[in-house]
Structures are given as C-alpha cells and as structure tokens.
Design a protein that fits this description.
With about 475 residues, this protein is α/β, with parallel strands linked by helices. About 35% of the residues lie in helices and about 25% in strands. A 6-stranded mixed beta sheet has the order 3-4-2-5-6-7, sandwiched between helices. Strands 9-10-16-13-12-17 form a 6-stranded antiparallel β-barrel. It has a 4-stranded parallel beta sheet with strand order 19-18-20-21, sandwiched between helices. A hairpin with a 3-residue loop joins strand 9 and strand 10. Helix 6 packs parallel to helix 13 and helix 12 runs parallel beside helix 15. The longest helix is centred in the C-terminal third of the chain and has 20 residues. Bound molecules: guanosine-5'-diphosphate. It is found in: Cytoplasm. This is Translation initiation factor IF-2. One of its GO terms (cellular component) is cytosol.
C-alpha cells in the first residue's frame, strides 16, 4: 500500500495509529482503513476483484459471432396433470426411431432428441414445471420453447395457469398443444377462449400464439407440433460455438450401484468429449464414458445434445452448470473452494428478498420491482389484493404479481418464488406442510394475512423502508 501511494511505510503506520489501528509493515490493512488513509492523500481507492478460476465458469464466455452456428432448440412440456404430457413426450420420442434403430432400446436419460426435416429438436423428458423451475432457480436457463399441453375436454386448469406463469417469468415462448382431440367432447375453441385471459391469443383470433390440435394417444398432429417448434426456433436464431469451451447444464443425476455417479447433461456450447475434465456444481471428474438417448456409447456430444456422463467423483444436482477445464488440479481446487463457500453460505445469510430488508435492497439498487406470488381462499380476494398491491405507488419501485391463485400455498409456489426472487403473500390460506418446510430451507419470505388492508399497509411500509423488523 505504501508503495502504491508513494509514501514511507512508517508514515502510513502513523496514520493508521491515529485511526486506532495498530499495524506493522507486514500486516494487511482493511479496505476501510486503506480508503481513509488514501483520502488523506487525495487518492481515490478503487477495489478490483482478483480474477481467479472461479470466474471461469460463471463467465458465459463471449463467443465471437463469427464462430457461432445454428443449434437445435430445447423444449420443455408443461401443463395440468392428466392432460397428456407424458403420453405426448412418449409419442414424440417414438415417432422418430429410424428403421435401423427400431427394436433398439430407448434409454430414459432425462432428455432426448428427435429429427424432422433434417433438423434436430431436444426435449427435456421430465414433464411438469417443477423440473423447469428448479433449474431456473439454480440459475440455469435450459429451455428455449415451452409446449403447453391443455386437454380439449377439460380446458384451462390451475396447473395450466401455473405453467403459463413459469414460462412467462422465464421469458420462454409458448406453443399450445390442444390435446385429446380424439375425444367426443373435445372443445378446442373453449381452450382458446380461456387462454385469451392469460394473454395467449390464437393467430386466427388476431394474436400471435400458435395452437396445435393433437391427439397424443392416436398420435395425430405430432408432426405439426415439431414443425411449429422449428418455426418458432428459427425466429429465435439459437446459436452456439461447436468449438468453444464446452459447458452446459446437469439435467438429472443419480448414484448408480454399478457405475457410480451418473449425470445426464445437456451440452449448450462447445463439444464435450470422453477424457474431458468436467466441473459440475461441487463435483468434478474426467469423463470416462458417454451414452446417448438411444443407449449408444459415443465419443463426443455437441450443442443441444443430451448425454449421460460417467466419471464424476460425486453426484451433482439437477440445474448445476458444468464446464470443461484444461487442468485437473485447477478443477479440484475450484471444487474445494466451492464446497467451502456452499458451507459458509449455508451458515451465513441469504440474498433472497424479504420484506424486512427490502428497503435496503432498493436503496442499493438491487431491486426495482417487488415480485409477489399471491394466494388466497377465493378468487375475489385474489383480484382485490392484486389490484391494491399493484396500485401502491412508491417512487422507483413497483409491485409485480408473478403468479396468483386460489388455494393453499404449495411447493410449486415456493419454487417459483426462489426462481423469480419473490415473496409469497397468503390471504386466508396457509402453506402446505411440505411447502412450509421448503420455504424455510430456501429462505423464502412467506407472509400470511387475514385483513387485506394489513397486507397492503405492510408491503407499502416495506417499500418505503418503514417496516418494523420482525423478530
Ligand atoms: P400427464 O399427467 O399430463 O403426464 O398425463 P398422461 O400423459 O399421464 O395422460 C393422462 C391420461 O390421459 C392417460 O390415461 C392417457 O392415456 C390419457 N391421454 C393422453 N393423451 C390423450 C389423448 O390424446 N386422447 C385421449 N383420449 N386420452 C389421452
């Protein structure tokens, strides 16, 4: 420090003494003290974070646009229970087994690829939005397009709405598959009508949402869906660098008795090869073998391709990002660091939004919007509360309701809250026990009210920084 400010060390030591800091020439000095002393000399202190390996995987390496080429879209299927998500996923998967592979074993590895008109499409094989949002909560953005399955004989149901809100929160375009068209009481117009309420307006009605009538059971309309996916993905111009640093996301992972830790990963950039050194979350290892969705051993996997990898030292979590390292020693050092950081974070505080420290986060510029998930006992209260919350006016911040619904606060609400950094407001409802546990461990702020006025008042106070902390 003395060298940097071009003074004698003894002079600095004296100054520090005035500040009540006993230092010798060998001591490190705190940033605060350093700043004060420097100010004395009219020197401004700028703190630079040291660059270390840890940064490497956080960094989505800027790829030179010249090196980018088209990659396949990655699709998730969501919708209400029993509307046909699993049937549709299975039907699409089997459309595509080529003659030579027919009779071969299709492996369920968590994702699969199909080919249409010479182009590939990747499907995440876990239906429902839990998987989708858990991943997003961990910072992974793996979905390019969402297929929203709505049964034509049943129409829009609560989980349909949840799915829409999850997709919207992640900014992922939605294609609606109106399923069970083979049923006598199928009423696709009703589905279209109901979905307009959620901003999904069919093209023939003047909107821009694609609706595809299908029957997953009778395997009707599957090609149409695939073609529409290609259409939407063309607009998105999805790109990756096949020769860039391989990285991607863990889709599923488990400990296999015979094979050890097995992880299905989706490569999102670069080409992953057998022998590569991979860091995934808090584990690492050398890729010993790779297996594709058809159960074949393969040597390399390019962008948008799902593969099962063997060779990690431990089981990563779904949603963990992975990245290839050139050097095993560095990889192990990074993982050590991460493990201890995770431990520290578990002990220390969290950065989730809570009403109590909202004002601080607003002031620090971390928050411009308070995201809220709203649950109430009846639709009327939901609407009333939403209306009042969105009317709250505090300079520079506003309330945004990311999801609303009638009924108890469930796990999906909590997952969505973690993913969109939201608080959960319950009006005359309680969290389900599982949801309560999860809110606790994920440190999601859940507030329960019986009087609308109290809810409004508390949120307003929090926005203005006048909330008495809750102990
Ligand atoms: P999920 O809960 O959304 O995954 O729904 P499933 O795929 O498990 O389907 C629920 C039920 O609906 C099953 O009995 C399916 O056989 C049935 N089903 C799915 N698709 C269709 C369809 O297109 N037509 C008819 N009639 N039944 C279907």
């Amino acid at each position: 420090f003395a060298k940097l400010v071009k003074r004698e060390p003894s002079e600095i030591i004296k100054k520090l003494l005035f500040l009540g800091i006993m230092a010798t020439i060998n001591n490190e000095i705190e940033v605060d003290a350093m700043t004060l002393v420097a100010e004395d000399y009219g020197i401004e202190v700028e703190i630079k974070e040291p660059v270390d390996e840890e940064a490497v995987d956080m960094l989505v390496e800027e790829e030179n646009p010249e090196n980018l080429s088209e990659r396949s879209p990655i699709v998730t299927i969501m919708g209400h229970v029993d509307h046909g998500k699993t049937t549709l996923l299975d039907a699409i998967r089997s459309t595509n087994v080529t003659a030579s592979e027919a009779g071969g074993i299709t492996q369920h590895i968590g994702a699969y690829q199909v080919e249409i008109k010479g182009k590939k499409i990747t499907f995440l094989d876990t239906p429902g939005h839990a998987a989708f949002t858990t991943m997003r909560a961990r910072g992974a953005q793996v979905t390019d397009i969402t297929i929203l399955v709505v049964a034509a004989d049943d129409g829009v149901m609560p989980q349909t709405v949840e799915a829409i809100n999850h997709a919207k929160a992640a900014n992922v375009p939605i294609i609606v598959a109106v399923n069970k068209m083979d049923k006598e009481n199928a009423n696709p117009d009703r589905v279209k009508q109901e979905l307009t309420e959620y901003g999904l307006v069919a093209e023939e009605w003047g909107g821009d949402t694609i609706f595809v009538p299908v029957s997953a059971l009778k395997r009707d309309g599957l090609e149409d869906i695939l073609e529409m996916i290609l259409l939407v993905s063309e607009v998105q111009e999805l790109k990756a660098n096949t020769d860039g640093r391989p990285r991607g996301t863990v889709i599923e992972a488990e400990l296999d008795k015979g094979r050890g830790p097995v992880a299905t990963v989706l490569v999102q950039n670069g080409t992953l090869r057998v022998g590569d050194i991979v860091v995934a979350g808090t584990t690492y290892g050398k890729v010993r073998a790779m297996v594709n969705d058809r159960g074949r051993r393969i040597k390399e996997a390019g962008p948008a391709m799902p593969v099962e990898i063997l060779g990690l030292s431990d089981v990563p979590s779904a949603g963990d990002l992975f990245v290839v390292y050139d050097d095993e020693r560095k990889a192990s050092k990074l993982v050590d660091k991460r493990v201890s950081k995770v431990r520290q974070e578990a002990i220390g505080s969290n950065s989730r939004v809570t009403l109590d420290d909202l004002f601080k986060q607003i002031k620090e510029g971390e928050i411009k919007e308070l995201n809220v998930i709203l649950k109430a006992d009846v639709q009327g209260s939901v609407e009333a509360l939403r209306g009042s919350l969105e009317k709250i006016e505090v300079e520079g911040v506003r309330v945004r309701v990311v999801h609303q619904g009638v009924g108890a606060i469930n796990e999906s609400d909590i997952i969505l809250a973690t993913a969109s950094n939201a608080i959960v407001i319950g009006f005359n409802v309680r969290p389900q026990p599982q949801a309560e546990k999860m809110a606790d461990s994920e440190k999601v702020d859940v507030r329960l009210y019986r009087v609308i006025y109290n809810a409004i008042e508390e949120v307003e106070a929090a926005l203005k920084g006048m909330l008495d902390p809750e102990f």
